[in-house]
């Protein structure tokens, strides 16, 4: 039981490049989330999903897209990276109704030059 | 709607002295509240959580927090700081009702520095 894993752990991009971050969980959780962490701002919700095939916007969705084709995976895409997207990205998952047990991934540190 | 305000961005204490990290929240429904800790370049670790049971919640590493509905507060305390407590702390609220869908709302974080 690996919990929540994120791939990659680190990445450096040039402005305009694209990439996809992968979040995977093996706990059969329905709900999954992508957050970004910036100094002095805590974690802010980018997008979330309440089930396979469904996604919704969070607090800061601009510049990102997501997909949830399989229940265990939640992908975060950057189509044209910008320096403002330099951040640490965390994925989380919870079981529907069990809002008191969130499971976080280890984070992905992304730098956009 | 839900929100969290951590009243101090930085707190500095001496080793062996008490720690107080302050958090106020706003929530339309009955909230669940959490404190997370993040050591430098590390992930998030759950310290403790309040889920409408006892208002005084004990967590790991000697930390505890008291839920005060009348003051909409959930302050984190520890009687005696240790050097290993130096980290960033996040107060987090989640609203089970409405259309929150389990979304967490984080405070801005409080950086705790512990001096020898």
Task: Please give a structural write-up.
The complex is a heterodimer of chains A (113) and B (116). By secondary structure, chain A is mostly beta strands. Helix content of chain A is 0%, strand content 52%. Chain A has a single domain (4-103), classed as Immunoglobulin-like (Sandwich). Chain A has no helices and 11 strands. Chain A is globular. The mean pLDDT of chain A is 93. Chain B is an all-beta fold and 116 residues long. Chain B has a single domain, classed as Immunoglobulins (Immunoglobulin-like, Sandwich). Chain B is 0% helix and 55% strand. The model of chain B has no long low-confidence stretch (mean pLDDT 91). Classes of the chains: A mainly beta (113), B mainly beta (116). Chain A binds chain B through residues 31, 33, 35, 40-45, 48, 50, 56, 58, 90, 92, 94, 96, 99-100, 102, 104-107, and chain B through 4, 9, 32, 34, 43-44, 46, 49, 51, 90, 94, 96, 100-104, 106-109.
Topology summary:
The complex is a heterodimer of chains A (113) and B (116).
Chain A: E1 4-7, E2 10-13, E3 19-25, E4 31-37, E5 43-51, E6 54-57, E7 65-67, E8 73-78, E9 87-94, E10 103-104, E11 108-112
Parallel strand pairs in A: 2-11
Antiparallel strand pairs in A: 1-3, 3-8, 4-5, 4-9, 5-6, 7-8, 9-10, 9-11
Chain B: E1 2-6, E2 10-14, E3 19-21, E4 23-27, E5 31-38, E6 45-50, E7 56-58, E8 64-68, E9 73-78, E10 87-95, E11 104-106, E12 110-115
Parallel strand pairs in B: 2-12
Antiparallel strand pairs in B: 1-4, 3-9, 5-6, 5-10, 7-8, 8-9, 10-11, 10-12
Measured on Cα atoms, how large is the radius of gyration of chain B? 14 Å
Helicity level of chain B: under 10%
- Classify the beta-strand content of chain A into a percent band: over 45%
Radius of gyration of chain A: 13 Å
CATH architecture of chain B: Sandwich
**Helix/strand order of chain B:** EEEEEEEEEEEE
CATH C-level category of chain A: Mainly Beta
User: Which term fits the overall shape of chain A?
Assistant: globular
Residue share in helix of chain A: under 10%
| Largest sheet report of chain B | 6 strands, mixed
């Amino acid at each position: 039981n690996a919990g929540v894993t994120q791939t990659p752990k680190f990445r450096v991009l040039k402005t305009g490049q694209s990439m996809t971050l992968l979040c995977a969980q093996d706990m059969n959780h329905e709900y999954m989330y992508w957050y970004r962490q910036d100094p002095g701002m805590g974690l802010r919700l980018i997008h979330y999903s309440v089930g396979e095939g469904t996604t919704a916007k969070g607090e800061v969705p601009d510049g990102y897209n997501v997909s949830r084709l399989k229940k265990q995976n939640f992908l975060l895409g950057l189509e044209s990276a910008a320096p403002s997207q330099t951040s640490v990205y965390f994925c989380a998952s919870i079981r529907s109704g069990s809002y008191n047990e969130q499971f976080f991934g280890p984070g992905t540190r992304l730098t956009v030059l | 709607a839900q929100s969290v305000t951590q009243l101090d961005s930085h707190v500095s204490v001496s080793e062996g002295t008490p720690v107080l990290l302050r958090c106020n929240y706003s929530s339309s429904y009955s909230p669940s509240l959490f404190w997370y800790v993040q050591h430098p370049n590390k992930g998030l670790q759950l310290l403790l959580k309040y889920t409408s049971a006892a208002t005084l919640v004990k967590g790991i590493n000697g930390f505890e927090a008291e839920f005060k509905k009348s003051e909409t507060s959930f302050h984190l305390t520890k009687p005696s700081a240790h050097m290993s407590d130096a980290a960033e702390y996040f107060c987090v609220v989640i609203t089970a009702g409405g259309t929150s869908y389990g979304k967490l709302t984080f405070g801005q974080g409080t950086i705790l520095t512990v001096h020898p």
